């Protein structure tokens, strides 16, 4: 019975692509890219690096693009990883942009951070920026990374931010984020919201981890391929096209494999946090000029949520892409989004 429940739990997680300053002094370093001997699909995996914080946690992140480029922090979806930022690599040609993509706590090789809050990740972003000597930067988050991007807009001093963007981002629960959502997503969000104890249950987490570890790499990849298929059933036409593209599916699987490399605690914690009450209010965001990007046919994070967030965030702007969905927006509109957010730097 437990193995059945833990297997089903994965379908309730959000597939998103196609993650005090004084105590955060840290030293950067490069670590082995341990997972992706099994990853044939990404044209580049970026440069995987680590940051050891003075409080003992390790953050991992990938960088893409020229080191002298305009710095842009990319916050991955959930469950996903820093590998997700590779989807923007084809759009970096002739754009002087450096992408820095952290793995959130418990994702990939980033340390777990029990009882963390969304605004805590803003301090992690600052720690990486400080370690790289970056004074001013932009932040953009996709899907489940969107709330963390907004947490940065709330908690990072405005003089450090040159821009903040959200792509197909999850809205807070009080704004009715499931309005217009596909049945699969609606059920997932409501189950996690009202049965969060299930996701916080240590036995079920261990059972899920043990199940994944008992499978070969290919068996794990096949499990996540089927999850993509299940997710895509109720999505729009452009999203279905992406889900039918074998290379795109393998990229999604790569991201999910890395998300669970350190076990399921990080992704499950993330899922609970997305539907719980956030630790900041949208109306309290002091940074002006937040940009929200959404496809009108997005059934995973519907346009309703983006429109409501635009009303709640002072000075924010909303860009709607007609006909695009949750998977297709980054593939089809990534270049336009980069140009809109980064402008003429």
UniProtKB/TrEMBL annotation:
It comes from the Eukaryota. InterPro entries: AB_hydrolase_1 (IPR000073), AB_hydrolase_fold (IPR029058). Residues 71-331 form the AB hydrolase-1 domain. Coiled coil: none annotated. This is AB hydrolase-1 domain-containing protein. It holds the Pfam family Abhydrolase_1. It comes from Arthrobotrys conoides.
